[in-house]
Amino acid sequence: MLNTSNDQRKLLPNFEQLFTTTAQAPGGVARLRELILTLAVQGKLVPQDASDEPASELLKKIRAEKDRLIAEGKIKKDKPLAEITEGEKPFELPFSWVWVRLGILGEIVGGGTPKSDSSEYWTDDGVAWVTPADLYGKKDIFISRGRRDITELGLSSSSAKLMPKGSVLFSSRAPIGYVAISSNPIATNQGFKSCVPYFSEFNKFIYWHLKYSGPIIDAGASGTTFKEISGRDFSEVLIALPPVAEQSRIVARVEELMHLCDALEEKGRLEQAQHQQLLQAMLDSLTQTTSTHELARHWQRLAQHFDLLIDRPEGVDALEQTILQLAVRGLLVEQDANDEPASELLKKIQAEKDRLINEKSLKKIKSLPEISDEEVSFDLPSGWSWTRLQNAYDVRDGTHDTPKYQSSGFPLVTSKNIYGGFLDLNDVKFISADDHKKISERSKVERNDIIFAMIGSIGNPVIVNTDVEFSVKNVALFKYYAVNLSCPKFLLLVLQSEVESIKARAGGGVQAFVSLGQLRLTPVGFPPLAEQSRIVARVTELRALCQQLREKLTQARSTQTQLAQAWVEQAAA
What we know:
The protein has helices at residues 6-11, 15-24, 28-41, 55-71, 102-105, 152-156, 203-220, 231-235, 244-287, 292-304, 306-309, 313-328, 342-358, 389-392, 433-442, 488-504, 516-521, 529-572; strands at residues 98-101, 106-109, 122-123, 127-130, 142-143, 148-150, 168-172, 176-182, 187-188, 194-197, 238-241, 385-388, 394-397, 410-413, 418-419, 422-423, 429-431, 450-453, 459-463, 471-472, 475-479, 523-526. It is α+β, with helices and mostly antiparallel strands. Helix 12 packs across helix 16 (488-504). The relative contact order is 0.10.
């Protein structure tokens, strides 16, 4: 339960409900952080106190301190900053606040980098020096040093400047918006525009204000190679300045609520990890069953907690993968003793292969080794047989060379054209009729064949559903020795279920690659032809239900996000 005062409740009605509702939505905690900063800089996070010395008096003291530092030669006199117009003010301030530009509150300091090839400029223990990369992923407000230090000589030989403890560092390019406070004297590279406050006790308020302003500053930045904000533009950044006492209250409240956000994020991560472990354990219990009767018992246990376990789209994805594994293990439909066994089907396929070889329509390949016990991953149902993919299907590959492209001709399909279960011929390169003929002599693609990416994004098997002629490159092609002896959609299920194990066997350095020989040797459980059709029908039915569930959960999460956003907008209004 949040500890909110009565005054706080007046400022933010339903504050606890806001946190609860928003934190549970996708990306909700990040949205909460944005809201906290918005409320902080608008004066809505803590109540105002009429006894506080107004910010206008504070501004006089800041100007006096700046004049003193200029007079003592500690800082240079800069050009006057532009007056703040009414059109610039993004919101109305509380009665005791004032609008100022950042350059009024502190000296704006750039950075620099000594020559990287001069060893006398670099050391392991010298002047603390940071780059934007040192702030990447950093949650702590303070920073003491970066990955490298520079020497005193390196500092004096570059445009880097040593800033005092308490300086507010702001990355001004690549990327814009990282913020930290130095916990000791520090220098930066040229990727920063930092603010050295004239009164160091203001640095935390400036820090949180710049966290809020970072996206606004980034949106207004310019550049060609990368966006950057200049020192002058950084000086012009608008700051909503409260009284000193209220700054302290705001900083304390922001830090309290940010710690709460940290706790909510950690709680969410733990809950998600535990949820995934429980769901995976339940799904594993399904795939480890040895009979349809045992499967029914395990499924009943899952069904009792279905709403709790399958409560997000990624849970449906895991369920769908489990359905696929059950399908290719013969656990999704009952076996029928009247079906012709797979051993007889394989004999007919072999006979058809022999006929094609005798007719010179098919090249004879070396006999494949018997499947060893170590390769067998589960017990087969009655009527099934273990076989290698090449014994049941004609496994070929397309060209691995790059033909000469031209403006028109025959499409050349690669892995980028197969994704999400579909073949996309909209973004293809074209080759000549001669090159197409040459590739087709090796691997002619026909309707109902299956293509499978062999390089890079291995997998993504797709059934060819077009009569458009095309060639393939770095793609495996699965054909059928006889159409009447095959069920293309069952082969698709097999390949989808085997993708991860095929990837595990892939070789290659920069790009993973699976060879044609590896694909041909892949062992699969092969069911009777009639059962193949029953399995495909059942999987199609269950996948349709999964898609309906996925859409409902996606809509529910979208509604939750919209509700959270409405709470945030109401609170920030």
